[in-house]
């Protein structure tokens, strides 16, 4: 059974930084696109950032210039470096593995940004 386990969430003041990490197991990690999504209270889950198997990245306009996604295929991990955090970034952040029609999700990690 594929497992995606997120870590690194927490409480931070506006303007601060956090680094999220997602460890994948029981998956051929290097062939999957990996991504981060988030869901704020009362809102739908939304795309944050993605990195392809060849390390091409994309991100939502709302986080461009502040968040950076990276992957380590040797350690089966994907990270999201979040800088200049804003209260609007408060959400549960989910790790995602995607290939063709297959999607896997982690359980999520809470990020709370205080003003």
Account of the 3D structure:
- This protein has 115 residues and is mainly β.
- It has strands at residues 3-7, 10-13, 18-25, 33-39, 46-51, 57-59, 67-72, 77-82, 91-99, 102-105, 109-114.
- The mean pLDDT is 97.
List keywords for this structure.
single chain, 115 residues, 56% strand
Largest sheet: 7 strands, mixed
Alpha-beta classification: mainly beta
Weakly predicted, low-confidence segments: none
Tally the helices: 0
How far is the N terminus from the C terminus?
40 Å
Helix residue percentage: under 10%
Please state the overall shape, judged from the principal axes of the Cα atoms: globular
Rounded Rg: 13 Å
> Average pLDDT value?
97
Give helix and strand order, one letter per element, not per position: EEEEEEEEEEE
List the helices and strands and how they pair.
Blueprint: E1 3-7, E2 10-13, E3 18-25, E4 33-39, E5 46-51, E6 57-59, E7 67-72, E8 77-82, E9 91-99, E10 102-105, E11 109-114
Summarize this entry quickly:
The protein is 0% helix and 56% strand.
């Amino acid at each position: 059974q594929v497992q995606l386990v997120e870590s690194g969430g927490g409480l931070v003041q506006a303007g601060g930084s956090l680094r999220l990490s997602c460890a994948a197991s029981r998956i051929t990690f290097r062939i999957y696109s990996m991504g981060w999504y988030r869901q704020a209270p009362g809102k739908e889950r939304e795309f944050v950032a993605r990195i392809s198997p060849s390390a091409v990245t994309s991100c939502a306009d709302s986080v461009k210039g502040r968040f950076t996604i990276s992957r380590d295929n040797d350690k089966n991990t994907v990270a999201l470096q979040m800088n200049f955090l804003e209260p609007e970034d408060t959400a549960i952040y989910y790790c995602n593995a995607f290939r063709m029609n297959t999607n896997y999700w982690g359980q999520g990690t809470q990020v709370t940004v205080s003003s």
